[in-house]
Amino acid sequence: MSRPSFVHLPLLLCAAALPAQARETPKLSLEWDLRARHEQVDDAAFADAARADTLRLRAGLRFASASGWNGLLEGEGVAGNNRYNSGANGRGTLPAVIDPHGAELNQAWLGWKGARGNLALGRQRLLFDNQRWVGNVGWRQNEQTFDALALEFAPRKDLALRYAYLDRVHRINGDDARDPLARERALSSHLLNAAWKHGAQQLAGYAYLHEDRDVAAASTATYGLRWSGSVPVSQAKFGWTLETARQRDHANNPLQFSHGYWLLEPAITMHGITARAGWERLGGNGTHALQTPLATLHAFNGWADKFLVTPANGLDDRYLGLGGAFGRERAGARMGWQLAWHDYRADHGDAHYGSEWNASLSLPLAKGVSGLLKFADYRADAYARDTRKLWLQVEYKGSAAP
Fold it and tell me: What sequence ranges are listed for the domain Alginate export (predicted)?
């Protein structure tokens, strides 16, 4: 017998709540996110380059009532050409761009929000901390969402407690991916996170007990601490992020392992420019390595996406970055830029995987409309092949009362 769907439950609860809502008129709003993107991938492992032109529309209807009830029903559709391997279109001779065509239910949840906390039940977007362990992979056209029960509670102004039970993850590969395990996974995962804020500093502790019911070898338990903050220093601002974690086998995982993780990232901001240096380590032992399958992976270890799966020897990523804004303010924002360089090595052994340059320029065009130019250049040494990626993107976000 299959388990009850977390998507159907919010609809039943909404129907049950209707009599209580009869005395008030809930506030409704229509939300949309329209994104057009050109992505070009030149990977030396393939004879031809991929050139993906895609258009994504995400639209939803949100409601909120004075009594605290709220919810969202949202759909998502992606269309475009087929000059790339989407994982669903059978174009395996071309480099991968995981933006498959199709339409699907993206979010459908019912929630309640009070003075000190809130809850949501159903298919929803979940972001924890910097999304290193749990995120929505918002960079891809088809985002990652979860069938989940999510709770947040703030017993004090400086303390936030979060818990989520994950029943299923709907992955970016879409419902038509050739590999059924790439479409979605049945889970029984518990996420716990506690964050304490003091001024510009935040200390967070977490335990992510991830059980994958479809792939037992992917089940892990990760425990960690994260400390971030900033302090003024003369005419500048010094910031830092320090994080450490330990990941072990969990539930019915047939493997036995224990891998370490740590991140050191100091930063300094002067005259509107932020410079940062980072050192991130994902442990490996030569046969198995620390993994973050629920993360927003594109945001870490370079935009060329060569390390979406951590190599068996682990990953040592040392990087430098610069970023800032310039020009006149337009539509409430200025043009932004980023530049970063990564050096990738094995955590186990002495292999030098390669290095990578990343650069981007964001442009506010009008209210709710933005443009983006982005580039990644990975130079391989002992891992994968040379890869260059270029993106051109225009996005329009907005909302309105019907």
Answer: 29-248
Instruction: Pull the structure tokens for residue 42.
Output: 């030149």
Q: Is 310 helix (H, G, I), strand (E, B) or coil?
A: coil
DSSP state of 140: S
Q: What is the dihedral of CA 380, 181, 3, 175, to 10 degrees?
A: 100
- CATH (residue range 8-400): 2.40.160.10
Q: How far apart are CA 204 and CA 396, in angstroms?
A: 34
Supply the mean pLDDT for the chain.
Answer: 95
Nearest-Å Rg of the Cα atoms of the chain is 22
Domain boundaries, the chain: 8-400
Would you give the end-to-end CA distance of the chain in angstroms? 41
Q: Find, among 196, 209, 343, the residue nearest to 281 by Cα.
A: 343
Contact between 325 and 364 (Cβ < 8 Å): no
Q: Six-digit token pair at 110?
A: 């019912």
- What DSSP element (H or E) covers 10? helix 8-21
d(CA 22, CA 4): 28
Please give the pLDDT value at position 402.
Answer: 78
Q: CA dist 130 to 8, 102, 106, 135, Å?
A: 30, 29, 22, 8
pLDDT over 50 at 34, yes or no: yes
Instruction: Please compute the mean of the pLDDT values over residues 198-214 and round it to a whole number.
Output: 98
Q: What is the mean pLDDT of residues 349-374?
A: 97
6 pLDDT tier (thresholds 50, 70, 90):
low
Q: Average pLDDT, stretch 13-31?
A: 68
